[in-house]
Amino acid sequence: MVSLWGTNKDDDHNAQGSNSSRDAGNDAQPQSRRSHDEPNERTRLIQQRHPPPNSDGYLDPDDPAVSPYNLWTVRFLRYLTVLFLVVSFLWWVLLLVSIFVSPPGLHSRGSGFFDFSYTTLTVGNLLVALIFFAAPSKAMRISLAIISAFLLIDMIIILTVGRIRIEEGWVGIASVIWASVMAIWCTLVDRVVAWGKREEEERLTGRPETRRTLKEWSAVLIATIILIIYIIITILMTSTLIIRARDASLKAPGERYYVDGEKYQVHLNCLGNVTYTGKKRDPTVILEAGEEPSEFDFEHWAYSAYQNGTISRYCYWDRPGYAWSDNAPSPHSAGMSADALSEALAQAGEEGPWILVSAGTGSLVSRIFSVRHGADIEGILMIDPFHEDLLHRIGSPGRGFVLWGWGVLSPLGIERLGGALFKGRTREDRVYGRNAYQSGKFIKAQLQENLIADSLTKNEVVSSNTIQDKKVPLAIVSSGVKCRTDREWERKQRDLTHLTNELVGWDVVQKAPHQVWKTYEGRKTMERRLDDLVKFNQ
């Protein structure tokens, strides 16, 4: 027992000594060690929240390996999106070419700018989806969903409104449907990528990442801005399509006739009765408008002449792309327009003899028509006609580029929408009136004239001069304003007076513009010369 107690005392003594030694040792530690335990100016305020790789099995969220591309589903969607972009781009190129040269089976009786613009929007949506593929966001999905909704409305309109469906054909319908499907596809792809990104973050970092880097925020901002612009464009295109549906309800006077192998329709209307002077049938006047549709003022003058008894019957038509007529395949020349008029007259049962009354560029069509129907032509009246030597003005490359640019923008309908909302423009104004120049069909017709004015059309007109019947009575009424301000124009007007040997008269109406009939003196002079032509062969 003594020994046991003694042993315990020794142990107590040793323990106390050991504790004393440790305390002494602690007191003997250098001050530098304590400084590491106590915070100072160099201590990290925020310790690393995520340990390095392999310490707990997770990666840092900023590690490049944390990517939605790790999922085969996401990669497959990306490959499909690339494929859709390639297909859309090839279709875009084909539509671009068809504006200038119509491939067989791809002719649109509409402008061709409609389907081209929708395909451009499709390519834009797919590019945004691919460029910002790894940075999905809710803002992008909402924007794409809005675009999809408006494109679905467009698809419904083009399928339900008969006139638009006929004009745009399968090419336009396919372009709108493809644009709708691709917008929905981009929305779903963005949603799947967002899901894949979250899945990979949970698998590789232990939790979904809620923060974004500056690069990601910049990508989301840029993509959202671009898509907002696309939304505005889609809204404008939808509004323009609604206006077109409204304009399609305006009934055309007369009839539309299929021409050129039933590729498109042209509008023709005839007024008055067939009359005879003795046994001879009185001539029917055929109106050929200039740079505007016949129904815009020009036909009104002819109707006044009809009411006054100067003429007993007249017909007017719309060249391809004007007013109620469809666009023709490209290229399209003045001679092709003359052939289309011949077909329409034959289908309508109209017979000669004819007196041709034309204005501006329409005089080129009338001159070609006259040599192809030489036996039936009893007179030619040209109102400030366009000479073939001046066709380089119509066919300038700069003018063609501007027309193409306006055509591409025409589906937005900014001018038409502004006129309808703020200026009270009616259907008549947009179809054949003062705002007809804003339609895609009209712009396409002008572009077609530009492309071959100084080549094919000029050759046709020059060739017609060599076989022109020199005994046909001819009258010319010119603009005094145009002749005073353009001496070359005046010389060419004088040159046209030698087109035949039977010049009934050449009048220069001093205060009249290029559209001579817009002045009272001009209308009176035109009617007097028309009366001279009617009486010439009586």
Automatic annotation (TrEMBL):
Q: Which domain of life is it from?
A: Eukaryota
The uppermost taxa in this organism's lineage are: Eukaryota, Fungi, Dikarya, Ascomycota, Pezizomycotina
Q: Where is the composition biased (Basic and acidic residues)?
A: 34-44
Amino acid composition bias (Polar residues), ranges on this chain: 15-32
Q: Which UniProt keywords apply?
A: Membrane, Transmembrane, Transmembrane helix
Q: What is this protein called?
A: Mitochondrial integral membrane protein-like protein
- The membrane-spanning stretches of this chain are 79-101, 113-135, 142-164, 170-196, 217-243
Pfam families recorded: DUF2417
User: Which Gene3D superfamilies would you find in this protein's record?
Assistant: alpha/beta hydrolase
Disordered as annotated region, ranges: 1-61
Any keyword Membrane? yes
